[in-house]
Specification:
This protein is mainly β and 160 residues long. Helix content is 6%, strand content 47%.
């Protein structure tokens, strides 16, 4: 049983999640697929709420290869800071990949420094953001484009 760390949308607890109910329907024809993205369910070990997530499944052995995304904050109860990579594919298409989360800016700032610090390369920017039910906001309060606010997406290396 594979475990991946995620942020509970209800209580903000960060924990290694276990997955159940992962079912894969293979593409009808052709293709040499090594993995598939599917819906799965997990539960928060802190508040016991069920959480619907997206995971990547290895088609060799049907194990969860990694956590893709989980719901944005579902209550106004929590607000956190994240270290993340923002990818501006276009003005109206922005994705955020989170690699650290904490209650305070200093902790995520440290995580950011460990990963090379604030950085900008082409349409990629590595930085600190605020995350709440209102979505992702820059430290100056500016919200990210709505396309960034659909879910919490995780860095492929996992949440640290
Ligand atoms: Zn929880």
């Amino acid at each position: 049983m594979s475990e991946q760390r995620g942020v509970c949308p209800f209580c903000a607890h960060v924990a290694a999640w276990r997955f159940s109910g992962v079912s894969v329907s293979l593409p009808p024809t052709g293709g040499d697929y090594e993995w598939a993205e599917v819906e799965a369910s997990t539960g928060c070990p802190a508040c016991a709420q069920p959480i619907a997530v997206r995971v990547r499944v290895d088609l060799d052995d049907y194990t969860v290869d990694r956590l893709i995304s989980s719901p944005m904050p579902q209550t106004a109860e929590w607000r956190r800071y994240v270290a993340a990579t923002i990818n501006r594919h276009a003005a109206n298409l922005v994705t955020v990949q989170v690699f650290a989360v904490a209650e305070d800016v200093a902790t995520v700032q440290q995580a950011l420094e460990k990963h090379g610090g604030e950085g900008h390369l082409s349409n990629l920017r590595r930085t600190v953001l605020e995350l709440s039910q209102a979505g992702y906001r820059e430290p100056n309060g500016a919200p990210l484009h709505a396309s960034a606010q659909d879910a919490i997406h995780y860095d492929p290396l996992g949440l640290r």
